[in-house]
Amino acid sequence: MNFKKILSRVLVYTFLIAIFVISVFPFYWMIVGMTNSAVDVIKGKMTFGNQLVNNFMTLNTSYNLSRILFNSIKISMLTVMGTLIVASMAAYGFEMYRSKTRERIYGVILLSMMVPFAALMIPLFRLIVELKLLNTHAGVILPSIASIFIIFFFRQSFKSFPKEIIEAARVDGAGELRTFFSIVVPSMKSTYAAAAIFSFTTSWNSYLWPLVVLQTDNQKTITLLISNLASAYFPEYGVIMTTIVIATLPTIIMFFALQKYFVQGMTGAVKQ
Amino acid sequence: MVGNEAQTSLKSKNVSYERILNRYGWGFTFFALILLITFLFYPIIYSLYLSTMSSKGIVQKFVGLNNYIRLFNDQMFLIALKNTFTFLVIQVPIMLFLALVLAAILNDKSIKFRGIFRTGIFLPAVTSLVAYAVLFKMMFSLDGFINTTLMNFHIIQKPIPWLLDPFWAKVTLIIAMTWRWTGYNMVFYLSGLQNIPYDLYESAEIDGTNKIQQFFYITLPMLKPIIIFTTIMSTIGTLQLFDEPMNLSSGGVTASSIGPGNSLLTLSVYIYNLAFKYMPNFGYAAAVSYVIVFFAAILTIIQFRVAGEKD
To answer: Where are the domains of chain A?
Structure first.
């Protein structure tokens, strides 16, 4: 290796390590922050303190953490279940029983992915009020079940599902619904896992729509709690850090445990 | 005669069979279509109708295009529009270029610890937008971690007013967004690079090209479809920017100014304010939202055009 090559190697690694440290450091900082008092957090103290229990106690007694966590888990779980059933059935319907009309509808659906949420937020809000779903979890869940991205993601996967198997099941006299639920679904586990992770993180992290729909404190989610705490006049930074760690933990665990599906869920639909 | 009869019966059997399958097609898509019509198509169309109305409280009257004309004289709207485009034009290219460079480096098989680098750089993408915005707000406070560290290393003499000055507030938001989304985009590029045969690089190496030439002559052209895709996604994402400016600014939802001197006011935040914070004017807010639709459509078409021309 000549000098120039070694130099470029050193530069490349320095660059990589710098980006790596910048990417990972805030995670370290929030874990440290969870154990520190408000003053220490804001001063940027980088070592562990002894306020962890205190921060938790404050969260539990003043902000009803268990209730908030229950709300978040309930909303995310129901959204995931609804989305998996509705979106995968729709994708199967579009892909396996093709018709001109449905292809056109599918085209319109894909196109509407381009419409920003802000453009439908106001009529959606009025609709939720009409349906008496304001300040209910159903009001948050229902509009997010038919996720276009996940319908698209499922359809891309169904494209590679061997049609002969479905034909064979038909010849054997299995009904269409039974074919779907007992042959297709069980053989697409990784697709379902990826879609579930994507749907869960989206729902768990969502902010704008829950902010509009959920109005009383005992209905709110953990994401809304972070936002509330941070906009207080005298923010309790240690408590905020604890909340951030709690809110980030489920997605991080999922990421490390199911990394393959996690990345597949985000990029899988693009490959076709 | 007999054969003909058999054929017609087979044909009619096929037709009725197709009809049954078609019915299943509607059956499987039924729930999704009902939900999409109710919670997506109806609001989109109703919003367009609403944008031609003026509503103060419950009184509504038809004003035609007046809401859209009013936009041109609305200082707040013009600020929001300018801010949104500033973020779009500066942040998106920086982030996508950084993501491309990182992907190109991490695709090189001679680099050690590729898996660890990849995972670490992707990690910010698992945080919620609200969580990281609040985290950055704390790190970039006046006597916060960033200023303390920079002063300890004698890089700056006095603290930078990150979130207290209109210019620096924008810089902070751009840094924060780049932190959150670079790794995310990198993963798209990495998966795209898998489809480029590795020996293409090896033979280019033999031909005496250096890494930078390989980046511009092999990596960029081969990744073009994915670059277009990520550009469109980032454009639409930036046009909808809401969680970050709302949570980086002090006071959050109830603040009178989003960032110092409204320097972080974006179109989506303005829509929220018009609809839910000030005296609600749903009609005017709907008009602003259609401005976003308009720009999303125009920019997407332009990006597709650019993609098409060079082929």
So the answer is: 62-270
Q: Is A64 left (phi over 0), alpha (psi -120 to 50) or beta?
A: left
Q: Give residue for tokens 């898996």.
A: B115
Check if the beta carbon of residue B52 is closer than 8 Å to that of residue B65.
Answer: yes
* B:241-270 residues touching chain A, CB 8 A cutoff: 242-243, 246-247, 250-255, 267-268
SS (H, E, C) B6-42: HHHHHHHHHHHHHHHHHHHHHHHHHHHHHHHHHHHHH
| Closest chain B residue by Cα to residue A34 | B135
Indicate yes or no: CB of A44 within 8 angstroms of CB of B139.
yes
Q: Per-residue pLDDT tens for B133-192?
A: 999 999 998 888 899 889 989 888 899 999 999 999 999 999 999 999 999 999 999 988
Q: Which of B289, B290, B295 is the best mutation test for A, with the most CBs of A within 10 A?
A: B289
Beta-strand runs (E) in chain B = 53-56, 59-62
Local structure of residue B154 (DSSP, 8 states): T
CA A18, A19, A23 angle in degrees (round to 5)? 120
Beta carbons of A112 and A52 less than 8 angstroms apart? no
pLDDT of A69-88, one tens digit each?
A: 999 999 999 999 999 999 99
Q: What are the phi and psi torsion angles at A231 (to 5°)?
A: -95, 10
Gyration radius from chain A CA atoms: 23
Long-range contacts of B79-82 (CB under 8 A, 24+ apart): B79/B262, B79/B265, B80/B262, B80/B265, B80/B266, B80/B267, B80/B269, B80/B270, B80/B288, B81/B267, B81/B291
| pLDDT, tens only, B51-82 | 998 876 667 788 888 899 999 999 999 999 99
Q: Which DSSP string corresponds to A115-135? A: S-THHHHHHHHHHHHHTT-TT
User: Distance between CA atoms of A143 and B42, rounded to whole angstroms?
Assistant: 12
Contacts of residue A266 in chain B, CB cutoff 8 Å?
Answer: 125, 184, 187
Q: Which of B91, B34, B20 is nearest to B235 (CA)?
A: B91
ipTM score over 0.95, yes or no: no
Contact B265, B78 (CB under 8 A): no
**CATH fold of A62-270, please?**
MetI-like fold (1.10.3720)
Here the tokens at position A264 are 């597949």
User: CA-CA distance, B35 to B59, in Å (whole number)?
Assistant: 29
Give CA angle at A9 (A5, A14), nearest 5°. 150
Average pLDDT for A221-234: 91
Estimate to the nearest angstrom the gap between the alpha carbon of B295 and the chain centroid.
Answer: 13
Give the closest of B123, B129, B149 to A23, CB-based.
B123
Count the Cβ atoms, other than its own, within 10 Å of residue A190.
Answer: 15
Closest CA to A70 of A82, A78, A62: A78
B18 contact partners, CB below 8 Å, separation of at least 6: none
